């Protein structure tokens, strides 16, 4: 968020949106990549042959929803600072 605001203050609204797009993509990649590893390791340890695949699938959907929701929060919290 600080990087996005600094770019917005230095380069105006165009710089803000470029920094927001870049940091959003980087944040989404990081969240999905790091939490997906946690989900996949819990999948192998949870299923002892009789486990269902619905719970890890739900965890993956929640992870992706969290990753998509983060840039929206960043925009909501910082957009009024760069006008």
Automatic annotation (TrEMBL):
Q: Which residues cross the membrane?
A: 15-32, 58-77
Q: Name one Pfam family in it.
A: YIF1
Tell me, which GO biological process terms does this entry list? Answer: endoplasmic reticulum to Golgi vesicle-mediated transport; protein transport
Cellular-component GO terms for this entry: COPII-coated ER to Golgi transport vesicle; endoplasmic reticulum membrane; endoplasmic reticulum-Golgi intermediate compartment; Golgi membrane
Show the InterPro entries listed in the entry. Answer: Yif1_fam (IPR005578)
Instruction: Tell me the membrane topology, using the record's own terms.
Output: Multi-pass membrane protein
Q: Does the keyword Membrane apply?
A: yes
Looking up PANTHER family in the UniProt record yields: PROTEIN YIF1A, YIP1 INTERACTING FACTOR HOMOLOG YIF1 PROTEIN
Family the UniProt entry places it in: Belongs to the YIF1 family.
Q: What does this protein do?
A: Has a role in transport between endoplasmic reticulum and Golgi.
- Provide the protein name: Protein YIF1
Record organism? Seriola lalandi dorsalis
């Amino acid at each position: 968020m600080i990087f996005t605001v600094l770019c917005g203050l230095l380069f105006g609204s165009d710089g803000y949106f470029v920094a927001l797009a870049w940091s959003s993509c980087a944040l989404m990649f990081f969240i999905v990549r790091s939490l997906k590893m946690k989900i996949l390791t819990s999948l192998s340890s949870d299923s002892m042959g009789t486990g269902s695949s619905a719970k890890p699938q739900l965890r993956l959907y929640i992870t992706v929803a969290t990753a998509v929701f983060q840039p929206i929060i960043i925009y909501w919290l910082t957009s009024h600072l760069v006008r």
